[in-house]
Design brief:
Blueprint: E1 3-7, H1 10-13, E2 20-22, H2 33-38, E3 46-47, H3 55-73, E4 77-80, H4 85-96, E5 100-103
Parallel strand pairs: 1-2, 1-4, 2-3, 4-5
Helix pairs in contact: 3-4
Length: about 100
Amino acid sequence: MKIISVIDARPQFVKYAPLVIHSGQHYDTNLSQIFFQQMNIPEPDINLNIGSHTHGKQTALIKIGLEEHFIKIKHNVVNNYGDTNTTQAGALVASKLRIKVAHV
């Protein structure tokens, strides 16, 4: 079984599974990169580098990026964390592609 984790914020970085897509929603060093460095967490397999936008545009860009990778990776479960735009986008894309969704 392949599980993919979609993350973007401080508490999520310490909970993720081996295959990770980082949306880039939180891109500031102190909100993202510092956790990979200080906690010796491997860099994400994929970084969408979405950055800052309005809520609607940010969510749409994350959905577009995730859909592309979800189709390529062909995994069984999408593991989402928290309550961010990335969490919402990951759940919606997975649901539309008929991929099981887990939420922490």
